[in-house]
TrEMBL record:
GO CC, alphabetical: cytosol
NCBIfam families: leuB
Single GO MF annotation: 3-isopropylmalate dehydrogenase activity
Any single Pfam family the record assigns to this protein: Iso_dh
Gene name as annotated: leuB
Residues of the site described as Important for catalysis: Y141, K192
Name under which the protein is recorded: 3-isopropylmalate dehydrogenase
Length: 366
């Protein structure tokens, strides 16, 4: 097989975390003939320093041509003053836009070894494994009109508009139903149909999509505010949650914190399948940012980046066995008591970024 990976390590701890994924890629190529072909580019502040843009057109083309993009993190105080259009985040936004990554997958998994250090009671989070599917390219973050108007009487008006079309709701709910089939076969759709027209349409289209193509999956609906409450009260009632851009942004951050540190959280963003080949554009990235406060010290937790690579194996290459093994390797390394600083607790062994990465490769190798 030849599997084209495009690596965009970015800024701050992005490159440090990406180095640990490179070790896994090298191992899988050498020992398992995985056939990964990697190329690498610049994004964020490092791209701005080199080309004056947050991602160059050449790197953008490589991202578009790859089977999957692995993205580290962008940003940092060094670039706080750069013009808005070329700020580091603009690189990620361009990737999402040009690759049409409309489905953002945010798993919230509680590793057994970390259940005791959750901010919730261990029994609430132990064994937790939920997946939030957030619509990423529509809704109130993009709808027009979007402006601030001067009302002329000392008052201004800020306007954002929530817009969803049928096709956008169909495709995001399709992704959620398909993923549910590979899991516990349950989807909970969240909106605010009691107060929003887009919520009424969301509910209708999810229901119709379910009836037409996915009636084997168990579907439920919840108002998004109640959903937030239920996520904190008893998160294990959920398997897959599908929701819009705004609610998904908030609910996925809430779900994330059920399970511990930012340094543990992976994500995937998927595009539409190519009508000819069936393959999807996809970008995998940790949820955390560039962590300037710890960058360059070799102490960042690489697990979020490594778990993002596990999602890449699962969703872009259908390497399900390898993804399962990699996730089990992460879990067993945590069981053995190794911890980076962000997840350190009493009685555990503190390790560096690179030691954590080595331990995961070793556990994966078995
Ligand atoms: P952050 O996620 O970079 O850091 C928040 C806190 O969590 C820091 O104390 C950091 O040390 C810690 N942390 C994060 N990841 C960690 C890891 N893997 N291991 C250990 N500790 C970790 O968020 P913050 O501080 O708000 O933003 C820093 C920069 O990152 C900003 O320039 C921001 O714009 C950018 N950012 C970029 C994102 C991206 O590339 N997708 C996402 C979020 C922020
Ligand atoms: Mg957010």
């Amino acid at each position: 097989a030849n599997r084209k990976l495009f690596l965009l390590p970015g800024d701050g701890i992005g490159p440090e975390a990406m180095s640990e994924v490179r070790k896994l890629i090298a191992f899988m190529n050498a020992e398992e003939s995985a056939g990964f072909e990697t190329d690498e580019g610049l994004v964020g502040g490092s791209a701005y320093d080199a080309h004056g843009a947050a991602i160059s057109d050449a790197d953008m083309e490589k991202a578009m041509a790859a089977d999957a993009v692995l993205f580290g993190a962008v940003g940092g105080p060094k670039w706080d003053g750069v013009p808005y259009e070329v700020r580091p985040e603009a690189g990620l936004l361009r990737l999402r836009k040009d690759m049409e990554l409309f489905a953002n997958l945010r798993p919230a998994i509680c590793y057994p070894a970390l259940a005791a250090s959750s901010s919730l009671k261990p029994e609430v989070v132990e064994g937790l494994d939920i997946l939030i599917v957030r619509e990423l390219t529509g809704g109130v973050y993009f709808g027009e009109p979007k402006e601030i108007i001067d009302l002329g009487n000392g008052q201004k008006r800020g306007i954002d508009t929530q817009v969803y079309d049928t096709y956008e709701i169909e495709r995001i709910s399709g992704v959620a139903f398909e993923l549910a089939r590979t899991r516990r076969n349950e989807v909970c759709s969240m909106e605010k149909r009691n107060v929003m027209k887009s919520g009424v349409l969301w509910n209708e289209v999810v229901t119709a999509t379910h009836k037409a193509k996915y009636s084997d999956v168990k579907l439920s609906h919840m108002l998004a505010d109640a959903g937030g409450m239920q996520l904190v009260r008893w998160p294990k009632q959920f398997d897959v949650i599908v929701t819009d851009n705004l609610f998904g942004d908030m609910l996925s951050d809430v779900a994330a914190m059920l399970t511990g540190s930012l340094g543990m959280l992976p994500s995937a963003s998927l595009g539409a399948p190519d009508p000819k080949t069936g393959s999807r554009k996809a970008l995998y990235e940790p949820v955390h940012g560039s962590a300037p406060d710890i960058a360059g010290q070799g102490i960042a937790n690489p697990i979020a980046m490594i778990a993002s690579f596990a999602m890449c194996l699962r969703y872009s290459f259908n390497m399900v066995a390898e993804a399962d093994r990699l996730e089990a390797a992460i879990s067993s390394v945590l069981d053995s008591g190794l911890r980076t600083g962000d997840i350190m607790s009493e009685g555990c062994t503190r390790v560096s970024t690179s030691e954590m990465g080595d331990a995961v490769v070793k556990a994966y190798a078995g």
